[in-house]
Description:
Layout: H1 10-65, H2 69-76, H3 83-112, H4 122-147, H5 151-174, H6 180-198, H7 210-244, H8 247-280, H9 283-320, H10 328-353, H11 357-382, H12 384-410, H13 421-437
Helix pairs in contact: 1-3, 1-4, 1-5, 1-6, 1-7, 1-8, 2-4, 2-7, 3-4, 4-6, 5-6, 7-11, 7-12, 8-9, 8-10, 9-10, 10-12, 11-12
Amino acid sequence: MSAPATTGDPRNGAAARLAHLLLTRLALVVAGGLTSVIVARALGPGDRGSYWVIITIATAAVALGNLSVEQSQTALWTQEEHRPAITANSLWLGLAVGATAAVGAFAVVLLFGAGMVPASERSSLIWGLAAVPLMVAVVYVNNVHVLHSRTGAVNRGALAGAVIQCSTLTALGFLDRLTVAWVVIIWTVSAAVNLAVLLPSLPVCRPRGRRLVRRTLSRGLRQHPGSVCHFLLLRLDILILNAMSTTAAVGVYSMAVTPAELLRAMTSAVVQVALPRQMQSNEETAAAYTARTIRIIVVLASVSVGLFCVAGPFLVVAAVGPAFAGCVAPMLILAPGVAAAATARPAAMYLLRLNLPRLTSMMYGTAFLLNVALNLLLIPRMGVVGCALASTVAYTVLAAVQIAWFVRSAGIRLCRLFPGAAEAREITRWLRERLRVA
C-alpha cells in the first residue's frame, strides 16, 4: 500500500522548479530573439559576421579553458562531505581559471589567428575576452546552485543579464549608435550583471580545501578532452565557414544558428531540474529517472521543433529583413539535429556519473571529427546549407551513440525511452495547473 502524498513530495518541488525554469527560458528566448533582430538590422550580414566571430572566440576561450571543472563538481557532489568546499571555491576558482583562459586566447589570436579579427576590431576582441573570467565563474556558480536545487538564483541571474543586454541594445539601436564594439561591450556587461546577481545567494567564503581544489582540477582535466570536442562540435563550424567563405555568410549562418540555440535553451530547463536527482540517487533510481527525463524531453522537443519549422522561417525573415533570407534553409536543416542532441543530454549526464572520461571523450571526439570532415566536404559545394547539414548529421550520430550506451549500461529497454500516455497526461496536468494559477 503506497504512502499518502505529503507536502514534502520532491516531485512537487521539481515540478515547481521546472515551471519556473521553463518560464525563464521562454523569457530568455524572447529576449534573445529580440536581441538578434536588433543586432542583425543594425549591423547587417557583414558586421554581424565580424561580431559573431569575436563572440565565438570568447566562448571558445570559456569552453576550452574552463577545464571542465563544472563536470568535476557534479561528479564529486555525490560525496556529501565535499559540498561546502565545492560551493565556497566556485567563484574564486572560476575567476582564476577564466582569467588564464582569456590571456591564453588573446595570445593565440595574436600569434596564429591574426586574420580572424581585423585590426580595426582588435579592441572589440579585448572587450569580448574580458567576459571570459566572468562567464567561467558564472558556469561554476550556476552549476553549484543547480546542484543545491537553487534554480531560482540561476533564473534571476540569467534574466538580469538578458534584460540589461536587450534594453541597452534597444536604446542604442533606437539612437542609431550600434557598432560591433558596442554590441560586444554590452555582451560583456551582461555577463558581469549575471554574475553579480548570483552572488548574494551563494555562501561565498575564503577558498578552502586545497587538496579538494587539486582533485577538482585533476578530475575535470580527465573529462576535459570530451568537453573540448563537444564545444568544437557545436562551434568550430563558424570558424571553418569564416575561413572558407565570407563574414556575410557567417552572419547569415549565425541567424540560422540562433533559433536552434534558443530551442536548446528551452529543453535544457528539464535537464537542470533532473540533474540533482541523477547525482544523488542510487544508480538504479538514477537510471529510471534519466529514462523518464528523456521521455519528457522527446515530447517537448518534438512539439518545439514542429512549431519552429512551421512558423520560424516566416518570423525570422520578417523580423530581420530580406538580407538574411538565406538563413531559412540551414535553420530548418539544423532543427532535427538540435532536437536529437537535446534528447540525449540526460543520457550524457548519467554517463558522467559513471566516471568514464575516456569513453566520453571518444564519443565527442568521433562526432567532432565527423563534423569537421563533413564541413570541409560540403561547405565548398553547398555553402551555409552544407555547414548546417554537417552539424545535424554529427549531432544525430552523437545522440544515437549516447542513447545506445545509456540503454546498455543502465540495463533498460529502448522502448522505455519513448513517451506514452503517462507523459502526455503529466504534461497536460502540469499545463492545466499553470493556467489555473495564472
